[in-house]
Amino acid sequence: MRLVFASTVLCFVGFTALQSAFLTSDQAGGGDNARTMRVVQISLVPESLGAVYGEGLDPEVLHWIYPDEPVVVQLTLSNQSGESMEIPRQPREWFEAAHLRLVERVAGEKTGAANGRPSNELSGRLLQRSRAGPASLTADVLRLGTGSSETVRLEFDRKGSFDVRPGIYALSVTIDERFAVAERTSQLLHAERLVGVRTVESRADLMNHAAHMAMWATLARDFDAARRWLRELLAVNPVSSVGYAQMGNVAQAEGRCKEAIVNWEKALQILTADSDTEGRDRGGTARDDGLASLKWKIRRCQ
């Protein structure tokens, strides 16, 4: 099972938008640079998809995981401090020093890593590393120029560190300040997201699970499996814009541009007419973004 992506972000129309949402600060540096924001910040994104169909699901939870999905998170360390900084990689790299925790939400209580019940500590293997801006990596140090960042994707053992029962959890990450030290820098080294873990129970679950599994199959380039999952989704809901949009994505990945356009145009018609009455976020920003994304894909593929 895997908890949207480092350098590879796939957008599937109709899913709740997934955003890194970098934390912000109102603290400024001192001295001659009083007007310069000096912030070292970390963001956390669970790589699960949102609920296309939200009936019976908590509307506050953007990220959902179903059985058989991979569990992957994206962590980004960003230097907005106005000066270059060096992060030691010994004895461990910064993301290996991060504390990733799951805290289960208790009915009637606020979910949070700081005030939650005993949590699961997570540790994952590195899947992918990418850097943006003037960043470099040597044997002993990660050097981040101002405005640069490093992003890692970590995969967790579904049967080990992520062996949790269905429920809603606060997924949080905190990094020891020793791994991100810069002079006169305000450090925002904690981030948190709500994540839901579900079994397939309802009609909405059937559709969401099929869409999730189709995405993972597409990423793995198992296009036959992706189509099987999408046929299952469309059998339950023949007017699923997400189903047709992902069918188009599969065809595009196979180099079948004409087939991709046919499916994208079908998804575009459904979204424009608002025919998928079961979809989440109908008429909102997600729908507008979906329409724009489909039109862009159609233009690019021709």
Give, in spatial order, the strands making up the sheet with the most strands.
7-10-3-1-12
CATH homologous superfamily annotation of the largest domain: Immunoglobulins
Shape: globular
- Structural class call reads alpha+beta
Order of helices and strands: EEEEEEEEEEEEEHHHHH
Quickly count the helices. Answer: 5
Rg for CA atoms: 21 Å
Q: For the record, give the distance between the C-alpha atoms at the N and C termini, rounded to a whole number.
A: 35 Å
What is the multimeric organization of the chains shown?
single chain
Here the CATH topology of the largest domain equals Immunoglobulin-like
Low-pLDDT residue spans: 1-37
CATH architecture of the largest domain: Sandwich
Average pLDDT score = 80
Largest sheet, strands/sense/barrel: 5 strands, mixed
Strand content: 25-35%
Number of domains: 2
Q: Helical amount among residues, as a percent range?
A: 25-40%
Please write the CATH class name of the largest domain: Mainly Beta
Tell me what the structure shows.
It is a single chain. With 302 residues, the protein is of the alpha+beta class. It has 2 domains: 31-197, Sandwich (Immunoglobulin-like), CATH 2.60.40.10; 203-301, Tetratricopeptide repeat domain (Serine Threonine Protein Phosphatase 5, Tetratricopeptide repeat, Alpha Horseshoe). Helices cover 26% and strands 25% of the residues. The chain has 5 helices and 13 strands. It has helices at 203-219, 223-236, 241-253, 257-273, 285-301; strands at residues 39-46, 63-65, 72-80, 85-88, 99-104, 120-122, 124-132, 135-137, 141-144, 149-156, 167-174, 186-188, 190-197. The strands form 3 sheets. It has a 5-stranded mixed β-sheet with strand order 7-10-3-1-12, with no helix packed on it. Mean pLDDT is 80; it is low at 1-37.
